[in-house]
Structures are given as C-alpha cells and as structure tokens.
Design brief:
286 residues, alpha/beta, Rossmann fold, eight-stranded mixed beta sheet, 9 helices
Amino acid sequence: MGRQRQRDTPIPQARLDGGGIAEIRPSDFGSGYEVLVDGTPQSHVDLADPTQLAFEYVARMGAVIDQLPDGPVTAVHLGAGGLTLPRYIAHTRPGSRQQVVELEQPLVDLVREHLPLPREARIRLRFGDAREGLKRMPPALAGSVGLLISDVYSGAQTPAHLTTVEFYRAAADLLAPDGILLVNVADGSGLAFARRQAATLRAVLPHLAILAEVQVLKGRRFGNLVLAASGKPLPTDWLPRLMAAGPHPAKVAEGREVDTFIGGAIPATDDDASASPKPSMRLFEK
C-alpha cells in the first residue's frame, strides 16, 4: 500500500500516550479512509458502506462473522483501530451489543471525531490494557460472549503479554460454550511466531482453524493469519463458504493441517512469551 498522498489537505493527527502519531488519510483503496500509527496502516473505514472490508485479514474475519447464527451477537473487541469490525457488526447485525477495549484514548478520540460511529450502534468503549480490560468486563458477560476478537498492536507488533496461554484463558472465560475467538497474527518467513500462537490458542480452545492467503500460510511472505478457535467443533460447512468468501487465493486449514502447521511448537506462557515480529516498512510503500 502506497503512502503517496495529496499534500494540500490537512491530515488529522493525534499524539498517542505511548509517544506515537496516529493519523487519518484518504484511502488507497478508492474510497474511505485509513487509520495509521507511525506510518503503519491499522484500519480502513468506509463511512458510506461499512461492509467494505478492504484489508484482507479483516475481510476473512468478516467472513467468519457472517457464518455465525443469524441475528444480533454479543461481541468483545480487543483493540479499536478505526472500529472497522464493530461498525460491520452494527450494520449487518442490528441490535448487537459490543464492547471495545483500547489502550490509546487519543486514537479513539481522533477516530470518533473524524470517522463518527452510527448513532444507533450499541458500542461501549473502554480504555486501558486489553488484558486488564478482560478483567473489568461486566460480570454478566462471563460465559455469554458469542464473538471475541483480539487484534491488538503497539505500533506494528502485538505485545508479548497478549500472546500467552494465560491471556487466552482469560478471553475464553468470557465466551459462550459455542463462542468464537478470532485472533489476528502477523508473521513472516518460517512462521515461528504464528505456529507458536496456534499451539498456544489450541491449548486453551481445542478446535482451531487458520485462515490466510496461500503464500502467507506457506511462510513465503510476511502477512496476516486469522486464527479462529472455539471450545466446540467449528461447523464443517464453514470451510467452503470461508474459502469462497475470499480474498483469493485463500486457504482454510483445519484438522490434520493444523497439526502439521503447529508441528513441534510449544505454547507461550507469561514466563517466556515474545512480541510478534516487526514487519519491514517496505510493505507499506509503493
């Protein structure tokens, strides 16, 4: 994605508490806007059409959301970005109840000012660390969340404490028996981090599927993988639907393919976890 922009239009910006700079720029995708932090694209938002999910991994998450039972959903989002998926759920599943946890309030304030949420959306915003935010959820949510999405980045990396067995156990405690946990994992050559994340997540929620672009899943280029996990078997009829939903060329790994993908990777714990690998900024240039 290129960063060449028109210079004659002021770019809304905010300095984050962590010292970075968030900004909102017209999108390279033809419509809408992108939210960037320190030059790294975080989100794409199309106010005119919230169903437009321009980033590939977000579109894959949207495809999973579309397979959930019809009607409103109770959802928790860890990481706000441009609030793309909360907007998508509010639009496609009116009446859904959603909680969003974001560390950087200046980021959310910037987004809400320049990319306002629909008035009818039932989205509760909470501020603080994602892991601490799980502890502060209303007690009534425990065991009743149908969808929990973890998509948390500090700059271009997921912090280590949000990649562990202990973290995923806290997230799983909120899920309904058939609830789905979606995790965005970014990795490159060899996929050592992604394989370990798959092992970590499956140690908590035994039923796991992996969605990614084929070359990313093979470890041939840096990119995003979506891990979908549940305490109950994922419906097998999801697989052809998810692959057909794209973006193409897509791959959904499950069953023995997940076993092969994980290989000998050992689950991460609070004692030995590491942050996700940092991508080269060349990925975001033309």
